[in-house]
């Protein structure tokens, strides 16, 4: 790297990562890998990633004996992912090889750990327009159900001597295939388009059915809400009527008490001496 004067400055090289540090980094990343490996780049996601990296760095620094910078930790995580992808690519290539060679490679434990943490990074792309990678389920089922040409079995009955063996060969019933096997054919561009349009039509049908169910649910929910509101209104109205009746009864009771008092006063006046 060059400075302002044009002189090259030697970049400071950090210490190599040993297996213990890599294992520690993996264990610290497991809790926050879903946040850090999120492909979204909006403000909230980037803020969550920054907080997640800070927590990873805190846990890693507390348990690690060597001081590491955040940039070193990020770079080591990227290197570990790249190594795991390279290892998986070699494994897939060795599996596709024909026989006669050495045993196919197997992924190492570190690759398996990273694969379990970020399986979406190891998904294989599929292109329907790539003729070398098209796999038709009908053709595959035909290949599996493919049978040989009709054959005829024989059994030999014991004879008197070897000269009669040819005469004692009795043919068994001829075995015919139970179904006609079609020849394997290569998919054409029209077949791919038909499959594509069929998938789109099925997707539209599913979307229409889902919208229909959603509208039905909304209507049913609205009906239940209206029913509940009507019941609540009737309850409040009935409660109001009961309160009015209670007030009338209390008023009538008060009037009766007043009349009683008046009668008592009148009785007292009549009993007083003249």
UniProtKB/TrEMBL annotation:
Residues 237-271 form a coiled coil. Residues 13-90 form the Myb/SANT-like DNA-binding domain. It comes from the Eukaryota. InterPro entries: Myb_DNA-bind_5 (IPR028002). The keyword Cell membrane does not apply. Keywords: Coiled coil, Transcription, Transcription regulation. The keyword Transcription applies. It holds the Pfam family Myb_DNA-bind_5. Self-associates forming complexes of several hundred monomers. Involved in transvection phenomena (= synapsis-dependent gene expression), where the synaptic pairing of chromosomes carrying genes with which zeste interacts influences the expression of these genes. Zeste binds to DNA and stimulates transcription from a nearby promoter. This is Regulatory protein zeste. The lineage of its organism: Eukaryota, Metazoa, Ecdysozoa, Arthropoda, Hexapoda.
